[in-house]
Design goal:
Blueprint lengths: L14 H16 L10 H15 L2 H16 L13 H11 L2 H15 L3 E2 L2 E2 L18 H8 L4 E3 L6 H12 L2 H18 L7 E5 L6 E3 L2 H17 L7 H18 L7 E3 L2 E6 L1 H17 L4 H17 L20 H5 L8 H18 L1
Antiparallel strand pairs: 1-2, 3-4, 4-5, 6-7
Helix pairs in contact: 1-2, 1-14, 2-3, 2-14, 3-4, 3-5, 4-5, 4-7, 5-7, 7-8, 7-9, 8-9, 8-10, 9-10, 9-11, 11-12, 11-14
Length: 368
Amino acid sequence: MKLGQASNLPTLPTREARVELLEKVGKSLLGMPYKSWNFGDSTGFEGILETGRMLKDPTYFAFAEGWFRAWASRPEPFKPLDCTAPGVAMVEVARETDNQEIFESLNRLAAYLMGRSKNRGIYDTWESLCLIPPYGGEELPAEEAQWLATPPGGTCIDCLHFDPPFLTALGKESENETLITAGVEQAHAYIDALQKENGIFDHFFMYGVPGTWAPGWGRGQGWALLGMLDVLKNIPLNHPGRKKIEDAAKKLIYSMIDLQREDGRWWCVVDSDKSGEEGSTAGFMTTGFARAIKLGIVDDAVVEPSMLKALAGVIGDTNSAGQLQNVTAAVFASTRRSHYEFTPRGFSVPWGQGPLAMAICETDELLK
């Protein structure tokens, strides 16, 4: 099958129209309120760099370089949320500019991140997990109400997109096997802790509390998939830790294809139609499916049609101003499934605009 020419696939906008849309999406990414650092910055800055490459516009690289040079001039004191730094994008900019100050700060950041204690093999993220009362107002059972009142520590699947890709990217660039090993071990630990038998990841676990929580959150599957694929891109084909990550990524991809709606989208909770729309999931999945095809780890005949349907879906959810619609707010965390089904939506944020930009860019080469 030649990509994009099967009769049952959606009709996509022309490349000219996709480029025009990307210009609008890219401008929105430059206007986001980044905070050095927080959740979503990784997809935001990766989207910025990919947009600049596809548009051949140096403005985007210069924007990212400016942020990263400013951060590198005074990166300390480090804080726990520095684990969300856009490490992959920063390594790229440092490499392209041969900026030793950025590299030095990235190595100091890596040392800080690797100095944290671990739970279930994963570097600690939250000393007090970001639990909030459930969106939708469901009453909590007594034990869960106590956790909300005094949250234990915890770790979320979002962070599979942070530490493992950053450590392996920096390790690859600096030829530091210690960093690569740490990144691969972290990816393995996330898989062991949060991926279920059906391939789908739960959202989080809490320290000292058995089990995992919040199955099927759509955007969470995107964080997991892009994180695993980044690690695969950064490590050698013969790396002994590669197969486990590749198998987990493929298992997730095929599960998400099984759960994909005919219109190319996914529900906010992927197996719950009452959870409503979540525009960002199709952007994440388009990007991930395209990268998996390029890595050669999936059956193209199965994944390509789903990638094209997802691309059509995420573009279809984007308005004339280049804003992706139906993107949910930061979900934080909750022990109640209803929380994820009632998450408010309608936000212009890096975890929506970034995956949209990457979806357009990553598929461009495949659609030529």
